TrEMBL record:
It comes from the Bacteria. Coiled coil: none annotated. It comes from Sinomonas puerhi. One of its GO terms (cellular component) is plasma membrane. This is Oligosaccharide flippase family protein. The chain crosses the membrane at residues 21-44, 50-73, 85-106, 126-145, 152-172, 178-199, 211-232, 252-275, 296-315, 327-350, 362-385, 391-412, 424-444, 450-468.
Amino acid sequence: MGRRVRWKQRRTSVSVGSGAVWSGLNTIVMKASNIAVTVVVVRLVSPHDFGVFTAALVAGTIATAICELGVASTLIRRDLDLGRLAPTVVAIAWVWAVLLAVVMASAAEPIGIVLGSSEAAEPIRVLALGVALSGFSAVPGSLLARGFKQGSLFLASALAFVPSSALLLFLASGGAGAMAFAWSKVVGGLVSATAMAIFARRWFWPRFDRVAFAEVLRIGIPLAGANLIGYVLLNADFALVGHSLGPAQLGIYSVAFTVSSLSVSVLSSVLNSVAMPAFSEHAGDPAGIRSSVGKWLHAVFLMGAPVCGLTMAFSHEIISVLYGTSWAPAAAVVGILALYGIPMLVELMMSNLLVALGKTGTVLLVQGVWLVVLGLAMAVGLQLVGLTGVAWAHVAVLLGVVLPLQVGLLTRALPRVLAGLWKLAIRPMVATVAAAAIGTALAIPMPTDASRLFVGGAAAALVYAGGLRREWAVYLPALRPGRSALREEA
């Protein structure tokens, strides 16, 4: 029995490791590819057109957050019965997503006005198609995440990227403006949904079961509420900037947010798709949960700190090289929002842990407090100093309100789960500061933004990697011994 348990634990460890690698690779490759395409496209469209699309995307993103009422996420939990719950989840996801898409398309014009751009109505109607597609792809995506098949998710994203990017470039070069982005999103969603349905290799037809319905709603509704508030949080600044300053300033802010959120995008994808099933695997085992949390925090600090630090240090050069001088005002916002990355990843990890523990109501409470306080702080910051005030509000509320609240609630649910783990941040943070300082000093004599970015960034990366070679030596090979150990046990 003990040998079987050890084999299962090692198999799960290998699956989690493989899932983490594929999820991280997926996000890095797709993020880099999307940035490359965006770099080309934003030189074909104006900040105004990009802002119009951003306004439409806010509506689409928030609607997508609740397109399946959170019920598909219950299928990711490996401690729940898939065969009993999945047909009811499919029924809920399909019906709700279509209804939500119809409402979104019907209310496109007033939504656009609220977001500061009446021109966003048509892109919003197009993106409503994507909301409907999200409902149909929710269950296949959850099945792949449940099985740690992030490689299949990566392939689905890659297959969707090619036609959507080709369409975006074609339409943008023809002067389609915001509609180019909207149609490319829908085409990408269609290809991705089809690929995930094929890769899942399991198809559940919709069927209503009253007991399963009550169970998935009990778990899913608080999670959907938390997701909704979370996506409102992530998009409230866009809505506020668009409504107050107009599409052009919104376009600039959107570019700044995209650049500064690289580390969050990469690691949040891993956390969302791998951490929750990994945490839930240790349900009822406080020692196992604490060990898993320590490993995830180590990864967050080790990989996230240098990206955030160097983005802040070279914000001007990054914007200038990637997007050109017309987007220069975004640099100041990038430098501030880069501070937001690591705390946001820590918050996301704790949210995943609370969900794995079944504390979805607690997550909803944290998100609600966050939304209220952040809304007030952003309104004040915008009035005082404009776009940079919105960025500072994000950082201040996360550090001063959200993280302390979440730590307290998590500690009450699972005492001492975070005890002493703050020490994991010390070496990565010190190495990041040293790397950024040396890289900046070496970049000063360089004549152009491109040369400063290349020389300073390369030097900083070498300093960071060398300073933490002990951590990298332990962390990176950790996946390989588990794989061979699994083969020996088998």
